[in-house]
Amino acid sequence: MTPTGNVTQPALMALAAAREVTQPVFTAVLDEQWVRSALQAPYLRDNNESPLPGMAFAVKDNIDVEGVPTTGACPAITAPALRSAAAVQRLMSAGAIPIAKTNMDQFATGLVGTRSPYGACHSVASAAHVSGGSSSGSAVAVALGIVDLALGTDTAGSGRVPAAFNGLVGMKPSRGLISNRGLMPASPSLDCVTTFSRTVALARLAFETLIAPDPDDPYSRPMPTTAPEGIAERMRVIGVPSARVDLDYPHRQAWQDAVTHAATVARLVPVDVEPLLAAARLLYTGPMIGERLAAFGQLLELDGPHLDPTVRQIVLGARSATAADVYRAQHLLAALTAQTRALFIGIDAIMLPVTPGHPTLAEVAADPTGVNSRLGTYTNMVNLLDLCAVAVPAGSRPDGLPFGVQLIAPAFADRPLLQLASRWCDEPVPDLTLGVHRELLAVAGAHLTGQPLNAALVELGGRLHCRARTAAGYRMYAVPGPIPRPGLVRTGDGPADGIELEIWHLPHQGLGLLVPTVTTPLSLGQIELDNGKWVTGFVGDSLRAESAQDITSYGGWRAYLHRHE
C-alpha cells in the first residue's frame, strides 16, 4: 500500500516552501527523492495509526540526519552523517518526515541567531530584530508555517529564546530524557534536544514520542515511574519574582500583562529568584565555558572565514581557567542548587521572562558579546540547576513584537508543566483521572511534603495531586505533642485567602490504614477548598475550645515552622 495523499502532500509541500525562503533559515534542504523514500518506509506504508503521519519537521544543523552533513553552522564540515540521530529516528518511526537542516549560531554558542557563516536569521515579526538563537532556523521555520515541528537544542536557552522572539512554544525537557546520540556536542553534560511548535498539544505529542532511555548516550536517564518528592500532578501555584526584574522598557508592560494573566491560571506566590540568576551568571562568566572547549575546541584552532570570530573568542578564552577554578564554580553551583530546591517547597513552577529585551541586528553587530550575554540572564541556569522549562507565548510588546515567558520546574516535572502550559495557552488539558479505588486527602501540617509524617503517605501509595488552600473562614491551631502538627477549624472568621494545603490521592485501602493513626484532638473530616470542592482532611474542631495556640496569621504550617526555627 502506498501512502495516501493526505500523508504525502504535507511533506512535499513543506519541501517546496523551504526552497522558496529568502532569509537563511536552512543550511540544507533535503532531496525530494530522499523525502519520497522516507514516505515509503514501512511505518508509514503499513501503519495508518502513526502518531505523526507524514508531518514535516525541520532539524537543527547540529543534529544528524542520515546522508546529510551535520555542519554546526561551520560549512567546512562536509562529511555526511552515517545515520540519523536518535531523536530524528524516533520522530520518523512515529511517521514524521525531516525536510531540511536549519541554520544556527555556530556550534550552538549564542542566543542571537547571527553567529553563522550562512548569514543571520531575523524574527518573523521584524526584519530589524534578531530571531534568537542558537536554534534560529528551527524557530523561524515553524513560525513561517513551513513545518509544524522542528528540533532544536537548548543548553543555555537556545530553545526558549527563539521561541519567545517568534511567538512559539519551546519545550526544554529535563536533561537526559531525550537521547543526545547523534547530537554535535556543545556542553555534553547540559545539552538538551528540544522542540518548537505552535501549540502545546503538539509539543506534548512530540515529547512523548521523543523520550526514551538510550544505553548509547552516557547522559541518558529514564522518566521515573513515580514523580520525585514535591512534584504535583496538577500545578496550581506559580512563583513570580519578588523583586523587580531587569527588563528593557518595551518588555516591562508585556511582563506585567503576563503576570496578570498568570493570576488567572494559578495562584501566584512571590519568590526570591536571586539563586537562579546567580547560577545563570556562572555559565559564561566562569570556568564552565571550558566544557565547550573540551567538546569542540579543536575545531577552532585553525582560524579562517569558516569560523565565527565571536564564537572562537569565547570558547578559546576558556584556556585560562584552572582546574581549581572549575571546582570552585562547582561548589558554588551546589550551594545555589540547594537554595533553588528550597524555593520550590510550596510552589509548582517559577515564571520568568525569557529575555530582558529583544535586540536588533544592529545592536548585536555593535556589541556581539554584551548583547548576547544579557539575553541569557533568565535562561542560562536551567540546565545547570537540573530544571525543566517551557517557553510560551505571552502576547506582544507595545511595539508589536512577540513576547514570551518561561515556566520552570524541577527535573521530571515535564508532564504537569506541559499541562500548566496548556492552561496558559487556553488549550484543552488532558484529564487527570485518579483511577478506581483512590481518594483525595487534604493535609496541612506534619504530612506535607518534606515533613516528618509525609513518608507515611508515600508508603501507603499516596501521590501529590496538587497544592491548594482552604476556602475562606478556616483558622489553624498548633497541636502540642511529640510531633508538632496543626489542626484546622472552620470558625467563619478565618482569612479570606485560606490556609495552605496539599492534596494527596491515596488508594482507598491506604486511607483506611491511615485512619487509626489519627489521634485526638484531630480527626478526619470534610474540608472545603478554595475552588469550592470538598475533600477529606485533618480537622480539629475541639481545638478552639481547648485554648490551643492560634497560628492562623502565618498562612500555613511551613511559614509557622520557619518563623520558629
- Total helices: the number is 19
Number of strand segments: 18
Poorly predicted runs: 1-5
Strand arrangement within the widest β-sheet reads 1-3-2-4-6-5-10-11-9-7-8
Instruction: Give me the CATH superfamily of the largest domain.
Output: Amidase signature (AS) domain
Mean pLDDT: 93
Q: Any guess at the CATH architecture of the largest domain?
A: Alpha-Beta Complex
CATH topology of the largest domain: Amidase signature (AS) enzymes
The proportion of residues forming helix, as a percent range, comes to 25-40%
Largest sheet: 11 strands, mixed
Taken from the alpha-carbon principal axes, the silhouette is elongated
Radius of gyration: 25 Å
Overview of the molecule:
With 565 residues, the protein is of the alpha/beta class. The protein folds into 2 domains: 5-424, Amidase signature (AS) enzymes (Alpha-Beta Complex); 438-563, Hypothetical upf0131 protein ytfp (Roll), CATH 3.10.490.10. Helices cover 31% and strands 19% of the residues. It contains 19 helices and 18 strands. The chain has helices at residues 5-20, 32-39, 42-45, 86-93, 136-143, 161-165, 200-210, 249-265, 274-285, 290-296, 309-316, 323-343, 361-366, 368-375, 381-384, 414-424, 454-459, 508-514, 557-563; strands at 26-29, 56-60, 97-102, 149-153, 169-172, 193-197, 237-241, 267-271, 349-353, 387-396, 402-410, 438-443, 463-469, 474-479, 485-490, 500-507, 523-528, 534-539. The strands form 3 sheets. An 11-stranded mixed beta sheet has the order 1-3-2-4-6-5-10-11-9-7-8, sandwiched between helices. Helix 1 packs antiparallel against helix 2 (32-39), helix 7 runs antiparallel to helix 16 and helix 9 packs antiparallel against helix 12 (323-343). The termini are far apart.
